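Need residues for this backbone.
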């Protein structure tokens, strides 16, 4: 039975029992900040176990029975993946769930039916064994009733058969309950141990756990009190690869039908057979390629933090093992294609995003291969003086990490292969010292903000946060609630005072979401203040950073708050960033996600996930699409609605951003080529897209690994930029004597002329050198240290001509080494025979620099340098070779 057939049978079986079949959720948790990844089938369903009504998009009514095959990620044992045949990073968990509907009786009966019925899996019932919680007599009764003899049932304590583990004594508080694990005896060919042995050792290759039935029936309270839940739940998990391993009669899941194509591809790429100790590398490469492909397909990108660091760590570990098998160029991206071929039918995102996934993987591999080469050489040097039982210092490990970007886990792994430990505590100390140096720079300002927050917290307790009224108007009447200088609250601010003003209501937008804080004025009878920016405290209080220009501003004063008209330019740029985001996703693909932005009156900057430069053609397509939206003059609207409703409608949310239960949705009411823009956003926007005028992209660059940046102008700034650019082009055309449309051809011809003259100049320099040599004069071969060499000093030549002369002399005189100098420049060439005997041009150059005060470098057959006293250098040459 293939893995696909097992998966389908499971889901179809539970559909026949009234369960709703749901597709796998993303491996990225949607609303659970405590998790990096979905790690079990029940994880994305937790809200329904906690009482949320189980209503699912596209399915009418409420469903209290659900079944899924959930792709899951567990990263706690990465270092064991491949070294054992049991550990996986990404796996598929089959599950059936009940939200207060059925309980133990049905769960056990259906598990038995699915496992043993010939219509379904048809496993031998005499080979099925189970474990239960030590006092779960209810589960015991149900198991014996379906046909499991008591001697094939083991009872264990809360450390083995309770979820969460040891919850009765150790917590946490909340829903919990006993569980029952199902094992299958694969027979004596997989081990000579017995079920009785398993009771003692709890380790077996013969008896394999294939299903865990969890019965959350209690609410744990303080003191270990287990209070029965009014409606107990069912949460089960069957490891698909384990069941496939059993049904296919293979040793481990690496031999199942879903993994063997990956193993075979590794053999094909490396030319190394899958056997013996080296098979560890095959398993690591296959499993991690599968994991990386799955994680990237759900929108995660390589980075140095969080999920991005995990997927980067997996890739680097796979590349490291590929390196051990002799691979010296990217290969993992080729395995991603195999993953998509094998599993894309079940998980269509693997095929839909394959091109993007492969590009990301290849770029990451190329970068890491460079890091790997440099880091391994440095680490080998560090380990050279150590032996088995020794310890590599934490300082050295941190140097590898900080200077070479070499991961600590790889340092530990490579050192371990030499029997050498790594001082991880010393590494952490060095890392902490570096972080402390960075933290100390901002400690003072952080302390001031904390003290200031006490005054703001008191204000919020009395009056609440600031009311923002600036979406519709740039002007409002307001009352001064608080004046702050530093952390001190003051009663009045005379002329010349720099002060932070808190108003009860304001039209000033506070810096946030990439949009700059508003500037403007505060006016009152007898005075005015200039607002230079606006910020918002964590308590929701708007802080107007102002300078009192005239009069005295007092707490309690009624003021007229006026935002600068430049805000309208900011609004143009903010709406344009939304259009730019939608256009990038339409042209480049759904992997594009916002990673940061700047929205001001002068320009906009948009950072987004993208793993390679954007081609000029695609950049032009993006710009054109945005301008078509602008020219269509679509209305721009905003509404407030529940977060879940907004997401169901397709509103874009910033990755990692935290939102409240009710969100503001900004929509462009129209689409171009079926593409539209709808985002969660609290910023300020135009009323119609036509107000933007136009958009011009003025720059595109990389700002971090996997993150690109676009800078653009809109409105009058865009028009001015185009006019200035045209004027520069026209001036350049006049300078070169051609119309603007012929500039490209004229520049090409000038470049060709320049190259021709450079070649002629190089020829003349070589002729000058030959003339100075005077045939064979000044080219007397000398000998030192068993090497024949020439030392020639010429006049008026640059390094390029010196290299040509050196090549000619080396060939003409069959010398082992030629040193040619001019002015303070020196070139050294070494012949092939001398290279094979160990003579190195770079080493000679280094010795001469020490003797003659110059500087230079090189290796192998060529080295060059400058700043030399040539007479001293040539005088030292004999001693260096000798």
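Answer:
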């Amino acid at each position: 039975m293939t893995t696909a057939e097992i998966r389908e049978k499971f889901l179809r079986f539970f559909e026949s029992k009234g369960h709703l079949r749901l597709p796998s959720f993303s491996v990225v948790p949607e609303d659970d900040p405590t998790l990096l990844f979905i790690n079990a089938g029940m994880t994305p369903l937790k809200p329904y176990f906690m009482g949320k009504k189980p209503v699912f998009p596209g399915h009418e009514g409420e469903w209290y029975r659900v079944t899924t095959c959930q792709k899951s990620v567990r990263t706690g044992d990465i270092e064991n993946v491949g070294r054992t045949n049991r550990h996986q990073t990404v796996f598929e968990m089959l599950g059936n769930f009940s939200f207060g509907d059925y309980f133990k009786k049905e769960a056990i009966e259906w598990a038995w039916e699915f496992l043993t019925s010939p219509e379904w899996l048809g496993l031998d019932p005499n080979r099925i064994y189970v474990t239960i919680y030590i006092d779960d007599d209810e589960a015991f009764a149900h198991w014996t009733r379906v046909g499991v003899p008591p001697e094939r049932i083991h009872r264990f304590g809360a450390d083995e058969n309770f979820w969460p583990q040891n919850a009765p004594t150790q917590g946490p508080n909340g829903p919990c309950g006993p569980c029952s694990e199902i094992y299958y005896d694969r027979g004596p060919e997989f081990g000579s141990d017995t079920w009785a042995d398993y009771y003692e050792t709890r380790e077996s290759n013969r008896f394999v756990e294939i299903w865990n039935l969890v019965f959350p029936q209690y609410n744990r309270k303080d003191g270990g009190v287990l209070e029965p839940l009014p409606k107990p739940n069912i949460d089960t998990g069957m490891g698909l690869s384990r069941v496939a391993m059993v049904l296919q009669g293979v040793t481990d899941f690496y031999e199942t039908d879903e993994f063997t194509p990956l193993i075979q591809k590794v053999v094909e790429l490396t030319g190394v057979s899958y056997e013996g100790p080296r098979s560890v590398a095959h398993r690591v490469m296959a499993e991690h390629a599968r994991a990386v492909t799955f994680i990237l397909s759900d929108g995660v990108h390589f980075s140095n933090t969080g999920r991005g660091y995990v997927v980067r760590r997996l890739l680097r570990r796979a590349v490291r093992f590929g390196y051990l098998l002799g691979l010296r160029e990217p290969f993992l991206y080729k395995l991603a294609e195999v993953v998509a071929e094998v599993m894309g039918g079940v998980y269509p995102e693997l095929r839909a995003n394959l091109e993007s996934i492969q590009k990301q993987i290849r770029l990451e591999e190329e970068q890491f291969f460079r890091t790997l080469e440099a880091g391994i050489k440095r680490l080998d040097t560090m380990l050279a003086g150590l032996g088995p039982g020794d310890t590599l210092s934490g300082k050295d490990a941190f140097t590898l990490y900080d200077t070479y970007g070499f991961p600590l886990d790889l340092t530990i792994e490579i050192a371990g292969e030499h029997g050498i430990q790594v001082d991880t505590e010393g590494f952490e100390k060095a890392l902490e010292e570096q972080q402390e140096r960075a933290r100390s720079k901002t400690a003072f300002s952080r302390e001031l903000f904390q003290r200031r927050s006490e005054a703001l917290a008191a204000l919020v307790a009395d009056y609440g946060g600031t009311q923002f009224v600036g979406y519709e108007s740039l002007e409002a009447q307001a009352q001064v609630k608080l004046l702050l200088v530093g952390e001190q609250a003051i009663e009045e601010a005379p002329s010349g005072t720099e002060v932070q003003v808190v108003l009860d209501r304001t039209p000033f937008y506070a810096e946030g979401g990439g949009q700059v804080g508003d500037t403007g004025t505060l006016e009152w009878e007898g005075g005015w203040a200039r607002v230079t920016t606006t910020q918002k405290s964590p308590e929701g209080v708007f802080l107007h950073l102002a300078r009192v220009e005239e009069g005295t501003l007092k707490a309690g004063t009624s003021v007229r708050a006026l935002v600068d008209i430049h805000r309208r330019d900011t609004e143009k740029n903010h709406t344009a960033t939304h259009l730019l985001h939608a256009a990038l996703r339409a042209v480049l693909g759904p992997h594009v996600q916002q990673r940061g932005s700047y929205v001001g009156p002068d320009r906009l900057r948009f950072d987004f996930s993208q793993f390679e430069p954007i081609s000029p053609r695609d950049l032009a397509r993006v710009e054109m699409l945005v301008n078509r939206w602008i020219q269509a003059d679509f209305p721009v609207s905003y509404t407030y609605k529940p977060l879940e409703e907004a997401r169901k409608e397709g509103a874009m949310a910033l990755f990692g951003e935290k939102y409240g239960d009710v969100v503001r949705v900004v929509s462009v009411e129209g689409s171009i080529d079926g593409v539209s823009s709808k985002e969660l956003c609290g910023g300020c926007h135009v009323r119609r897209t036509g107000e933007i005028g136009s958009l011009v992209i003025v720059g595109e660059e990389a700002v971090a690994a996997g993150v690109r940046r676009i800078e653009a102008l809109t409105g009058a700034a865009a028009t001015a930029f185009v006019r200035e650019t045209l004027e520069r082009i026209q001036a350049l055309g006049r300078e070169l004597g051609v119309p603007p449309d012929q500039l490209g051809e004229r520049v090409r011809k000038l470049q060709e002329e320049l190259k021709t003259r450079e070649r002629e100049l190089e020829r003349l320099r070589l002729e000058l050198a030959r003339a100075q040599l005077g045939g064979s004069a000044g080219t007397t071969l000398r000998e030192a240290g068993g090497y024949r060499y020439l030392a020639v000093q010429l006049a008026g030549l640059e390094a390029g001509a010196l290299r040509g002369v050196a090549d000619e002399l080396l060939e003409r005189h069959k010398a082992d080494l030629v040193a040619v100098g001019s002015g303070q420049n020196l070139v050294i060439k070494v012949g092939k025979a001398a290279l094979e005997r160990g003579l190195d041009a770079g080493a000679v150059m280094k010795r001469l620099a020490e003797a003659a005060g110059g500087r230079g470098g090189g290796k192998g057959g060529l080295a060059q340098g400058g700043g030399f006293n040539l007479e001293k250098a040539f005088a030292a040459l004999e001693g260096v070779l000798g």
